[in-house]
Amino acid sequence: MYNVAVVGATGAVGQKMIEVLTEYEFPINELMLYASARSAGKTVNVNGKDVVIRELSDAIYADPIDIALFSAGGSISEQYAPRLSEQGVIVIDNSSAFRMKTDIPLIVPEVNRVELSPDKTLIANPNCSTIQSVVALAPLAEVYGLTRVAYTSYQAVSGSGQKGIEDLERGARGEEPKNYPYPIYDNVLPHIDVFLENGYTKEEQKMIEETRKILNAPNLGVTATCVRVPVRNSHAVSITVTLDRDATLAEVKAVLADAPGVVLMDNPGELVYPTPLDANGTDDVYVGRIRVDESQPNTFHLWCVADNVRKGAAANAVQIAQCMIGQTATK
User: Fold this and answer.
1) Is 11 annotated to bind ligand?
2) Does the keyword section mention Cell inner membrane (predicted)?
3) What are the per-10-residue average pLDDT scores of the chain (331 residues)?
4) 155 is in an annotated binding site
5) 3-state secondary structure 150-194
6) 20 among annotated binding-site residues
7) Judging by DSSP bridges, how do beta strands 122-124 and 262-264 pair with one another?
8) Are 175 and 149 in contact (CB under 8 A)?
9) What integer pLDDT is reported at residue 331 of this predicted model?
């Protein structure tokens, strides 16, 4: 049994982490919840027991924590995660603070759990869109090798947290947005995170760099366009992938059908393909609309959908924790 901390327990991902820990029957001795001062003292009911939220402060270093799941933003992670890790706590961080650090594992359990080791106690949880994409790409990379990947993501407003959801709801009431620069209701925004000098957004650059790191393919050609869409939850990603070795459409489908964490929904004749509603509330990655790109040799199109708050954040973090304690992953 383990003493498990959730840092950022009142946020959307933090709340989902608590939910997933319960669903997965993670072996918890004591659950410790941390948040800002304004939330301290409130209680959260977990499995019929009220757990008091603690104020996040340096006092956390004295608490008997075995595993800490962080989802409180990069600055909080940078402040607290390294020292906890040095004390021997297994820290799994959902921010972007450590993802591209060469000595810190960036883990999606279905893809690269072999990179986990007992001596590396600070582990980064990847970007939500990257997680679902590499779950679909990794089995193809293993069998055929990859030459190039092009992403176009269609990302739900929950990816911006509660403030994104509230902007969608404001728009439905005819009100102006407070989070996004333009209305998201009845609209799409080709802009997620800040723009960089190269014209890409930070979100797009994350997908590019994280894909290369997770797949251990530093020279892989990757590009991305990330779009915010008026959907409450679950991201979709259109993936165009060029393989190193020849493959038929049937072979690609067969590989994906057997891939861990993938649910194949691909029968266009019967209008079977995944949508955000299919993925919502689940921890699988749904793949469909698989077809040959007739304009490029050995290139295929995939449509990939997953719940960005669960598999794209909370569940992936808990699955990493399961791997670290030697527990069979629930998903």
Assistant:
1) yes
2) no
3) 96 95 96 94 90 96 98 95 97 97 97 95 98 98 98 97 96 97 98 97 98 98 98 98 98 98 97 98 98 97 98 98 79 42
4) yes
5) EEEEEECHHHHCHHHHHHHHHHHCCCCCCCCCCCCCCCCECCCCC
6) no
7) unpaired
8) no
9) 42
Ligand-binding annotation for 10, yes or no, is yes
Model pTM?
A: 0.95
Nearest alpha carbon to residue 189 among 311, 179, 234:
179
Are 192 and 151 in contact, with CB atoms under 8 Å apart? no
Confirm whether residue 205 is marked as ligand binding.
no
pLDDT at position 130, please?
98
For residue 263, the Cα-to-chain-centroid distance in whole angstroms is: 17
Instruction: Look up 301 and say whether it is catalytic.
Output: no
**Other Cβ atoms closer than 10 A to 100:** 15
Helices H / strands E in the chain, number of each: 9, 13
Determine which one of 191, 226, 235, 323 is catalytic.
235
Task: Look up residue 196 and give its DSSP letter.
Answer: P
In contact, 261 and 328? CB cutoff 8 Å: no
Contact between 15 and 31 under an 8 Å Cβ cutoff? The reply is no
pLDDT in tens, 144-191: 999 999 999 999 999 999 999 999 999 999 999 999 999 999 999 999
Query: What's the pLDDT at 327?
Result: 65
Q: In the prediction, which pLDDT does 328 show? A: 56
Tell whether the torsion through CA atoms of 276, 277, 278 and 281 is positive or negative: positive
Distance of CA 115 to the CA centre of its chain: 18
Q: How many Cα atoms are found within 13 Å in the side-chain-facing hemisphere of 61?
A: 11
- Helix 315-324 to helix 12-23 angle, to the nearest 10 degrees? 50
The residue from 128, 191, 301, 304 that is catalytic is 128
Is residue 289 marked as binding? Answer: no
CA 173, CA 318: separation in Å to the nearest integer?
Answer: 37
**Active site includes 128?**
yes
